[in-house]
Amino acid sequence: MEYKNLTCEIQENIATVTLQRPKALNALNQEVLSELRHVFTEHLTREIRCVILTGSEKAFVAGADIKEMDGMTPLQSRQFARSGQLIFESIENFHAPVIAAVNGYALGGGCELALACDIRIASEKAKFGQPEVNLGIIPGFGGTQRLTRTVGPGKARELIYTGNTIDAQEAHRIGLVNAVYTPEELLAKSVEMAKTIASKAPLAVSLCKKAINMGSNMDISRAIEFEADLFAESFSSEDRKEGIEAFVQKRKASFVGK
Ligand code: HXC
């Protein structure tokens, strides 16, 4: 498929997906969403060990496309929200970690997209917010749930009820982003983290992601039992044999992802 609104570059086993709809500040219309769905569910293969999702200098994503939403009936708006939610779930459940490298605005659906990623790294110029209440609507791509789970209910309620925008430093302070860099450093630092992740045992990293994602929706006893199941799965891998053997032989492990 030829993408009109994004590019996907693969170097070794790291993919960089860049949203490219700068005239509308990368606003998510149905076409952008369907390209995002395609790239994560059909284009990227099991060999990929980490993905960086980024935008353009001014905007990561300024939200769902307000002009497109304007023409929707309530039923269509529900379908739009659901289809976006399912696409964001495919990013959340992608086999390898996804790092959101947030350059500029991450508002509404843009903040929700960053929240569906595993890790968020921001440029000093990034701005975050859920401004939906300014438009008479609510977050509909998972924001009420993922923001609450990420920063806790107190801060999530404040951001969602006031519609206030916060800068990168405040986003860092409340745990919405992991680190803040200059705009020039942002991609290089994201690639550095992606390379570190990609150098580890891929199946183990993938199982860690599964344990965190699925365990966070279970009660603690069930979640740790699930962790034990996945631990055993990692233990039966070739990479476990290689990793432990390499430690004993004082050499660098070479992982194959099996
Ligand atoms: C459609 C958008 C857009 C959006 C910006 N644009 N955001 N188009 N949907 N979400 C367009 C503008 O209309 C304009 O195009 C161009 O991008 C540049 O934007 P400006 O407003 O001129 O830039 P600036 O003055 O710098 O302001 C930047 C901004 C502002 C603060 C980010 O654009 C803004 O407030 N955008 C809306 C943010 C928002 O409310 N997001 C939440 C959407 S609701 P033209 O052609 O007019 O010049 C949402 C719901 C998710 O996300 C759940 C759905 C189920």
Automatic annotation (TrEMBL):
Coiled coil: none annotated. It comes from the Bacteria. PANTHER family: ENOYL-COA HYDRATASE, MITOCHONDRIAL, ENOYL-COA HYDRATASE-RELATED. It comes from Uabimicrobium amorphum. InterPro entries: ClpP/crotonase-like_dom_sf (IPR029045), Enoyl-CoA_hyd/isom_CS (IPR018376), Enoyl-CoA_hydra/iso (IPR001753), Enoyl-CoA_hydra_C (IPR014748). This is Crotonase. The keyword Ion transport does not apply. Keywords: Lyase.
